Each structure stands twice: as structure tokens, then as C-alpha cells.
Amino acid sequence: MRLGLFSDIHGNVEALTRVLEDMKSQGVDQMICLGDIVGYGANPGECIQIIRDLGCVCLMGNHDAAVAGKMDYSFYYEAARHSLDWCARNISLDHMQWLSQRPYTHRVGEDVLCCHGSPVQPAEFEYIFSPEQARAIEPHLNELAPVVFIGHSHLTKVFALSTLGVNEVLPSTFGIRRGYTYVITVGSVGQPRDYDNRSCYGIFDTEKKIFEYRRVEYDIKAQASKILAAGLHPNFAKRLFLGV
User: Fold this and answer.
1) CATH code of the domain covering residue 27
2) pTM of the predicted structure, to 2 decimals
3) Domain that holds residue 173
4) Per residue in 57-110, pLDDT tens?
5) Is 243 left (phi over 0), alpha (psi -120 to 50) or beta?
6) Helices 13-25 and 44-54, interaxial angle, to 10°?
């Protein structure tokens, strides 16, 4: 089975549409959204509806939880708080209720675990984008699946953990080796931050045990213009062009 794993859409309907088109062209059997449909971008309601229409598994991200009233975001910086407040005002009650019901984790068989941030206390949305952060989950390896897919950081970071320590995996396509627990960040659909402004998602072949990153171009200017027209912070538009 080929899993299409995507995360951090952030209201960017242009990026989401192109990624879904690419997934279909790649023969993906099952799509899994790792959360953060809303926040930053100008089309939260449209993105929610697209995901709902797909009928795929969709997990709770921190921005989803914030908009749905499931977490306190008063400590977020001002522009992010404004964006979340704007989202809450601009999505329907039905969409709000649907967001509030998203699960924090999902398993595919015995070998794959999906969540938005760290798989340890997933409702806390801790980051894993450094070897030190990956090392912090070592005491919990027996509780995890051999392959853990996450989002949250908008990066393309991969760590292979074993009793011998943590190794960072660099290739964009790689095989899963026995004896390791892999933590794979699938990148961001709507707001990449790894200095590549193309949308990013991943495909995992559960039989061949091979993961690959996919990059997809989309109409950045269209989404950026809508962000500015909505009165959201201009940095949310600017960073789309920069991939940061």
C-alpha cells in the first residue's frame, strides 16, 4: 500500500489542490493528513471542506486545536494570534465542530504511527527537528511503531533511533531498516520552511518499506495576494515565496 502523508496546509488552497493532484498521479492508495489545516493562509474553510470531502484520516494540529478552542494560544506571537482569531471568525460552526473532533494519533497496522508533533504526549505538540529533541523520545521507543510520521515543524527532517543513539537521515528517498525507529517529518503543503518554496509531502510504500519526499509547484502569488487582501500579516505572504 502506498500512503500519501501530508501536513501543515495552513489555509493554502492553491497548494493543497496541487498536492492532491500529484498524489493521485502517483497512485496513492490512502491519504493521511497530519494536521494544521488552518492558520496563516486565507482559505481555511475551503481547505477544511476539501479534506472533509476526501474522507481521509485527518489528525489534530496545534493550529486546529487553537481555532477549535482545544488549547490556549495566548503565548503565541501577535501575528499568529491574530491569524487564529481571524480563522475562528471565518469558518463555519460546522467546520469548527469538525476540527474539534480530530484525533491526535492514528495507526496503520503495527508498523506506522501518525501524529502532528512528538508522539510522546501528542496533545502537547512538542517539536522534533533536532537530534537532541529526537533523543528525548528514546525512553519511549517500545511504545512507538517502527515508523512515526509527523508534521508541525514544516521541515523535512528524518531521524533513525536505536539503542546506539540517533542518526539523521539525509536522502530524499530511503529505505526503512530493521532495528530502528524512524521519526519522519513530512514537510509542509502550505508553508514550507526548508528554503524550498514548493509544497512538500511524502509517500510511504508499506510493502517495499521505502519513503520518498515529493515537491510540487503551485500558484504562490495567488495565495499571497489573498493573504494580503484578508488583512493578515504580510510576512505570511512573503515567506511563501522564500520557503522559510
Assistant:
1) 3.60.21.10
2) 0.97
3) 2-242
4) 999 999 999 999 999 999 999 999 999 999 999 999 999 999 999 999 999 999
5) left
6) 20
